[in-house]
Specification:
heterodimer, A: mainly alpha, MetI-like fold, 2 domains, 14 helices, 0% strand, globular, B: mainly alpha, 13 helices
Chain lengths: 285, 286
């Protein structure tokens, strides 16, 4: 009896929570289901009608995926996205780690001032940099090349990476470093064998954050890579498809899911680091 | 401690180089260019700013950013808080939170595609119009994304869908940190759930609510991708960042683009002050 009354009193709570969760899930689920339906079915009936008979496998097809990968250049864009994102994740973190270590553990004139400037740069909107950097890339003739976008992402990723790693390195115990230095370890040894290994969780969160930031970026790619298909990442390619497909819009769900598959895998396999990275990213401008 | 005088500069040099080249110098140069013409060659005084504060498309953009600011910030923070408190009471909390947080993983482009299928005009494609015509068989479908009175709100709903999970996750951690003795004592004294929420939970986590709110405000001022993908600024959905992109890339007017960027910076600076002060307080506590 008590369990029943407890259940009844909490029933509205469950209804509300389940309803909210369903509302949040339905839009993605619908497009995911649509991506496996034939063009004809997609254009004449809603995705929800496919739920009536989900085990009728003749209704499902991977044709849309095959088509976008082969004829709409999604396979190439996927490679481009990887080719852009991997260096644009590793280099800023590497460069930031050295700088953050110096800000945390080395004495030098201007240390506090320079670090304050780095923190201030965190919230400068990227728009403040587009006109001069775009002009600079044009002068150098590297607009529309991977070099341009790698360099830009290194610059844009640094303030946040330095800020996060400096805080983390700074929170390590002073005695650990001092005893290592007393034992004759160099600054580099302490960096390589103490600071870095001790900060693996922070580095992982940061790497995931930066990876997703670059992978999901549209604006920076749009400006520095332009519309050149040979270098376009998934975000640019899919955004173009939205406007250009016309009658072939049935390909959009498959295209969108190809662009999301990697972030979703990262999300479910490394959720803890993922959430930590995103949380820390709340200060990124 | 051995001291090597050049070593700190060796460690920081690559970072300082990239920061100077891609953030410090361009920001200063953008400020200068905002007083110059389309090619950044002739000095034009405040002409670009006059454009930015009086042109029709900019006024629409300002209005829309203000709408985003109020609606997006309110609903993500309040919604995130309510969901955080509700899921705290159920056993399947991790699953519910994962599903609500998931949109944070995908790009605005992906979210734009997903929501085009919610908003589609054809009731055999768009979920919202299917529900509408099922409930009211006589009603006409609504062009959510092409009706100027509706489109900005439709975009804001998509933004709320993407970012509520972020607010929920941060606020949920804060809600769990509220000492149970306090809520328990209040319950003993006869307080109901509603009173506990308003008189205890909200005041205790107010600093976290402030953090989430400033983050959302920064997001909203820079909103671009969703607008670009879903409407490209048509149907009165233009926003400041989209107009800046257009002036820079399509109209190739560097002066105007720079002035818009400076205005964006000026809007963000007050929020930036709050962020930096918070950072300093946090540092002082260590």
């Amino acid at each position: 009896m008590r369990r029943l009354s407890r259940f009844l009193s909490r029933f509205p709570l469950h209804v509300v929570v389940v309803t909210i969760t369903l509302i949040w899930t339905t839009p993605s689920l619908g497009v995911f289901i649509n991506s496996f339906r034939s063009p004809q079915a997609m254009k004449t009936s809603g995705w929800w009608t496919a739920l009536v008979n989900p085990f009728d496998f003749t209704r499902w097809t991977i044709e849309n995926y095959a088509t976008v990968l082969a004829t709409e250049g999604l396979a190439r864009s996927f490679r481009n996205s990887l080719f852009i994102t991997i260096p644009a994740t590793l280099f800023p973190i590497l460069i930031a780690a050295f700088a953050a270590y110096a800000f945390a553990w080395m004495e030098f004139p201007g240390r506090q001032v320079i670090f304050s400037v780095v923190v201030g740069l965190l919230v400068v909107p990227l728009q403040m940099t587009f006109v001069p950097v775009f002009a600079m890339f044009n002068r150098l003739g590297i607009t529309g090349t991977f070099i341009a976008i790698w360099a830009a992402h290194i610059g844009y990723g640094l303030p946040f990476s330095i800020y996060l790693l400096r805080n983390f390195f700074g929170s390590l115990h002073r005695e650990v470093f001092e005893s290592a230095w007393l034992d004759g370890a160099s600054y580099f040894d302490a960096f390589r064998y103490l600071a870095l290994p001790l900060s693996v969780p922070s580095l992982a969160s940061l790497a995931i954050f930066q990876f997703l930031w670059v992978w999901n970026d549209l604006l920076v790619a749009l400006i520095y890579l332009g519309g050149t298909p040979s270098v376009a990442p998934l975000t640019v390619r899919v955004a173009n498809l939205v406007n250009s497909l016309g009658a072939d819009w049935h390909l959009l769900p498959a295209a969108a899911f190809i662009s999301m598959i990697l972030p979703i895998i990262v999300f479910f396999s490394m959720q803890r680091y993922f959430v930590r990275g995103i949380m820390a990213g709340s200060v990124k401008g | 401690m051995r001291r090597v005088r050049y070593l700190p500069w060796l460690y920081t040099a690559p970072a300082l180089f990239f920061l100077a080249l891609f953030l410090v110098y361009p920001s200063l140069d953008t400020f200068r260019r905002s007083f110059y013409g389309p090619n950044s060659e002739t000095f034009v005084g405040a002409v670009n700013y006059r454009y930015a504060f009086t042109a029709q498309e900019m006024l629409v953009a300002f209005r829309n950013n203000a709408l985003w600011l109020v609606l997006f910030t309110t609903f993500t923070v309040a919604g995130g808080l309510v969901i955080a408190v509700l899921v705290d009471k159920v056993k399947y909390e991790p699953l519910a939170k994962s599903l609500i947080f998931l949109p944070q993983a995908i790009s605005f482009v992906g979210a734009g595609v997903i929501w085009r299928f919610v908003y589609d005009y054809n009731p055999d494609v768009g979920l919202l119009n299917a529900i509408l015509t099922a409930l009211f068989p006589n009603a006409d479908p609504v062009g959510w994304l092409v009706n100027s009175n509706m489109a900005t709100y439709a975009l804001i709903v998509t933004g709320i869908w993407m970012w509520t999970g972020f607010a929920m996750t941060i606020l949920s951690a804060a809600v769990k940190d509220v000492p149970e003795e306090i809520t328990e004592a209040a319950r003993m004294d006869g307080a109901n759930a509603w009173q506990i929420f308003w008189r205890i939970t909200v005041p205790i986590i107010s600093s976290t609510i402030a953090v989430v709110t400033t983050t959302m405000i920064i997001n909203v001022l820079k909103v671009f991708d969703l607008v670009y993908v879903m409407t490209a600024g048509r149907y009165d959905t233009n926003v400041i960042a989209n107009q800046m992109y257009k002036e820079l890339y399509i109209n190739q007017r560097n002066g105007r683009a720079s002035a818009i960027a400076v205005i964006l910076l000026a809007l963000i600076v007050p929020v930036m002050m709050v962020n930096i002060r918070r950072f300093q307080i946090q540092e002082a506590r260590r």
